[in-house]
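Running this now, will post back.
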Amino acid sequence: MSIDAKTIVHDILAEDLEVDPAEIADDVSLRSLELDSLAVAELIVRIKEETGVDLEGEETRLADLSVGDIVALATPGREAA
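Update: finished.
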């Protein structure tokens, strides 16, 4: 079974964190989506639940990353940059 990290990340942002789907694009940073530290922590937990990828070590820089960067990090089998 292949996991589509992009769909997972977009769904978490739109459904769990209530980000307007029209605002979610690969080049948009989490900071520009106005996610607070609690929302970023929730995103990390949900990504781990859905993909098995643990981004906990990335928490401090996640807000500065783009949605596309987070999708790349959340893809199983990829190493954090």
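The chain is about 50% helix and 0% strand. More later if anyone needs it.
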